[in-house]
Write a structure and sequence with these properties.
The chain is built from twelve helices and 17 strands. The chain is of the alpha/beta class. The strands form five sheets. The chain has a seven-stranded mixed sheet with strand order 3-2-1-6-7-16-17, sandwiched between helices. Helix 1 crosses helix 10, helix 6 crosses helix 7 and helix 7 runs parallel beside helix 12. The site of 6-O-phosphono-beta-D-fructofuranose has 13 residues, from loops.
């Protein structure tokens, strides 16, 4: 019997359960494969007592439509920086990857599928270089991995953001207001850009194009006539003005390495008021509403394809790879290639050109 372990790591994302289900369903067609799931990313094997669950068809029944991950996840710590509490109450990050690999051998794990974003795939790559039989599956609502045309979860997030723009339009028009919708997007503005086009927004601010406040003010004024009018601005949380500062704060959570983004919407509101915009400005922050709930049909299909492909790679012993979507195929790329560069919005792309053609202002 061969034993495959599935891990979901990093921030959650709609479609994770569809990947788990696809791996289990495909594996169950083979006589000699057993699937186990590690609880809360790699913590299930890093911590004592060990927490893993047997994943069979009954365990994955009905999870296709569920958001989140039945295995749990974390974006703190990991095998290369595991938080250990010192006697004086401080924390030290310890590399216990060798210990973890030995434990996996002891547990009879023949292969690991790690479903996660760039941070998780960096862990996959480092574990592969230490000899672990590992395969990556890309996930992130931000769609910022360059090896794949799309990551699952992204379309769901765009759908949620677009529906939010639709809702803001009616209230903004009724009150002659400016609405700023802050959406996720750490380094890449894919969610903001797609939601702005699909929702018919007037301004779209993304991390790839630093904005000039006067250009945005000009666009706003063009949307008003004798005080009547409204304006919808979609801004990605990782955006910065032309003075170059991202908005957020360092996290005090143990093992959390990301800068905690958030607040660009409020900063933009103040900047517009300081620039002399007199219309009423309101800010809505979409936050984790974009990451929760049931995945769209598109994301369920993509996640299922990724799950089946990842199992095929495990069965073939083709490790150190990440599955990816390159239209029309699901392919395998090396983890090294997968992590080479982020997938950012190119200001010269046809999508940006489309937005500009529709009159959307980027501010830069
Ligand atoms: O990477 C996806 C993402 O949704 C980013 O857009 C966001 O900055 C981050 O995760 C927030 O993650 P969390 O709140 O889980 O720390």
């Amino acid at each position: 019997m061969k034993r495959l372990m599935v891990v979901t790591g990093g921030g959650d994302c709609p479609g994770l359960n569809a990947v788990i289900r696809a791996i289990v369903k495909r594996a169950s067609q083979e006589k000699d494969w057993e699937v186990v799931g590690c609880i809360e990313s790699f913590n299930g094997v890093l911590k004592e007592p060990t927490e893993v669950v047997i994943l069979d068809n009954s365990k994955v029944s009905g999870i296709l439509v569920q958001g989140g991950t039945i295995l749990g996840t974390t974006n703190k710590g990991g095998p290369f920086a595991f938080p250990v509490k010192n006697a004086n109450g401080t924390w030290t990050m310890v590399d216990i990857s060798d210990q973890m690999i030995r434990k996996l051998q002891y547990m009879g794990i023949d292969a690991v599928i790690n479903v996660g974003g760039d941070g998780s795939q960096r862990i996959s790559k480092a574990l592969f270089e230490k000899g672990l039989n590992i395969i990556g599956v890309p996930k992130t609502i931000d769609n910022d991995l360059s090896a794949t045309d799309f990551t699952f979860g992204f379309q769901t997030a765009v759908q949620i953001a677009t529906e939010s723009v639709d809702k803001l339009v009616t209230t903004a028009a009724s009150h002659n207001r400016i609405f700023i919708l802050e959406v996720m997007g750490r380094d890449a503005g894919w969610i903001a850009l797609n939601a702005a086009i699909a929702g018919g927004a007037d301004v779209c601010i993304i991390p790839e194009i630093p904005y000039n406040i006067d250009r945005i003010k000009e666009k706003i004024e063009s949307r008003y006539n004798k005080g009547r009018g409204f304006c919808i601005i979609v801004v990605a949380e990782g955006s910065k003005n032309d003075k170059g500062k991202k908005v957020g704060h360092a996290s005090s959570e143990i093992g959390y390495r990301n800068f905690k983004l958030g607040g660009i919407g409020q900063v933009l509101k103040l900047e517009l008021e300081e620039a002399g915009v007199e219309h009423d400005i309101r800010v809505s922050v979409l936050g984790h509403l974009q990451r929760g709930g049931t995945p769209t049909a598109y994301d369920r299909v993509l996640a299922s394809e990724f799950g089946v492909k990842a199992f095929e790679l495990a069965k073939a012993g083709d490790f150190g790879k990440m599955v990816a979507y390159k239209h029309p195929d699901i392919i395998a790329v090396t983890l090294e290639e997968a992590l080479k560069e982020p997938h950012l919005v190119s200001p010269d792309s046809f999508l940006v050109q489309t937005a500009k053609g529709l009159g959307i202002e980027f501010g830069g």
